[in-house]
């Protein structure tokens, strides 16, 4: 655990781009990831609340984001809108739950892999097959965000 300018930071919160640990790289209130979930309309109606809670719980546990930083957009899709290869990456995909995460470039590869594993574990406990989950994390800089201030 490190303290920078009175803000407590945990885990691997150094800048991946430059390796420096500076306040502008680490302010937790600017670090919330944006989650976008595309899923079948049927799955959305049946379980979007618990899916959202599971993803958010994984972010809190792995990325150490504040619990109030929940920004999720769900897009229910008709069956003909989800096109996917059922055997890509040697899996047996029957459905598609696409999770897109946009985050500031600050997390290590190990931490991102841990987040993916935690999300998949939590969703599998809800009866969602790991083979049906596709997660994509896109990173950008602090300068690419506007969150009301």
What is the makeup of the main sheet?
4 strands, mixed
N- to C-terminal separation? 28 Å
Helix amount: 25-40%
* Overall geometry: globular
Write down the domain tally: 1
Query: Which H/E pattern describes the elements?
Result: EEHEHEEHE
Secondary structure layout plus pairing:
Layout: E1 2-4, E2 7-9, H1 23-26, E3 34-40, H2 41-63, E4 72-77, E5 97-104, H3 109-124, E6 133-140
Parallel strand pairs: 3-4, 5-6
Antiparallel strand pairs: 1-2, 3-5
Textual characterization of the structure:
This protein has 149 residues and is of the alpha/beta class. The protein has a single domain, classed as Macrophage Migration Inhibitory Factor (2-Layer Sandwich). Helix content is 29%, strand content 23%. The protein has three helices and six strands, in the order E-E-H-E-H-E-E-H-E. Strands 4-3-5-6 form a four-stranded mixed sheet. The chain has a two-stranded antiparallel ribbon with strand order 1-2. It is globular. Mean pLDDT is 85; it is low at 1-26.
Which terms summarize this structure?
Macrophage Migration Inhibitory Factor, four-stranded mixed beta sheet, single chain, disordered N terminus, 3 helices, two-stranded antiparallel sheet, 149 residues, 29% helix, alpha/beta, globular
Give me a quick take on this structure:
By secondary structure, the chain is α/β, with parallel strands linked by helices. It contains three helices and six strands; from the N terminus they run ββαβαββαβ.
